[in-house]
Amino acid sequence: MRIISRLDHGFGPNAWYPFRGLTEEFKRRLAVYPSDFTDGVTGHRTMSKLFSTVVFLYFACILPAIAFGVLNDDNTRGGINVRKVVIAQAIGGIFFSLFGGQPMIILLTTVPLAIYIKVIYKISEELGYDFFAMYACVGLFCQMFLVLYSATELCSLMKLATRSAEEMFSLFIAIAFNVECMRAIHSIFKRNYSGCDSMNTTNVNSTLINATSEMDNGALCRRDTTILYMLLMFGTLWLGLFLYNFRKTPYLTRSRREWLADYALPASVLIMSFTGSYCFADIEKDRFKLRENVPIVHLADIFSLPPSGYFVCLLLGFSLSFLFFMDQNITSAIVNNPQNK
């Protein structure tokens, strides 16, 4: 009885019809829609907060886009690279902020999505399908299922979600981030550090003995690159946390402490990037591939797949739509939870 009453409260007392929730939400939001934009430029100290938020969100959006763009580039062998991820995220974010009814929602590429792209690529390789055709079909089927979720007000079922479900999803995201971080560390150690002792040293750095040596296959064994990678990674993490928690200290004035906390992320990234680029200019660094020769827009031939391929795309599209559904709704529930205010 308790579950039934909660469902009745979630779906409302009125008669149900397709897209009822979307229609009622549009009617409620239409009157206050302009205030979503005007409230950001009116009020005391609004412009300063707006500028700091824009700078913060710029780095908060561009850094994951670059990181997951590199990950997608490695997983798809350049099919989806950094440029495509950044441009697609910018176009999707602008479109969603204008027509989604809420400009404060920021669309980002996430770890589960990057992992799912890798799964699609592996399946397309094993089945011999064109990756872009399969990727486009999965996206179209995912869109179809999301429209069905919207038409049936399926998000009302999230009222049945408990706090444990939210915590489990948060734990999954945290584990996924840490796994990808550890995988990147392992990759750079394997590429630049391991096996150096067995190689013939042909080039000795004047400041770091045995730091750079020539491998038998012609590749460079660069231990200094690996150490610098670790230094910059943990240095950025420490500096960002230090600046963010500076508001809890008694130093400086309250406004300056808040200013440092607001710019903690971009400041830590810029400082450590400058440190790595200029203070350690002599050390070779691993940089992501820009792939300027790869076209940004690629028209996928979705009709090149066999009938069985569309069935596979249907299953993958349903799983992807379920991932989006859980990601969006549980994240919104976590943000709106009074305990997280």
Automatic annotation (TrEMBL):
Listed GO biological process terms: monoatomic anion transport; monoatomic ion homeostasis
Main location: membrane
Membrane topology value: Multi-pass membrane protein
Entry superkingdom: Eukaryota
Species assigned in the record: Cylicocyclus nassatus
Transmembrane segments: 50-71, 91-117, 129-149, 227-244, 264-281, 302-326
Subcellular location: Membrane
Pfam families tied to this protein: HCO3_cotransp
InterPro entries attached to this UniProt entry: HCO3_transpt-like_TM_dom (IPR011531), HCO3_transpt_euk (IPR003020)
GO cellular component: basolateral plasma membrane
Molecular function as annotated in GO: solute:inorganic anion antiporter activity
Segments forming domain Bicarbonate transporter-like transmembrane: 18-341
Name of the featured protein: Bicarbonate transporter-like transmembrane domain-containing protein
Keywords: Membrane, Transmembrane, Transmembrane helix
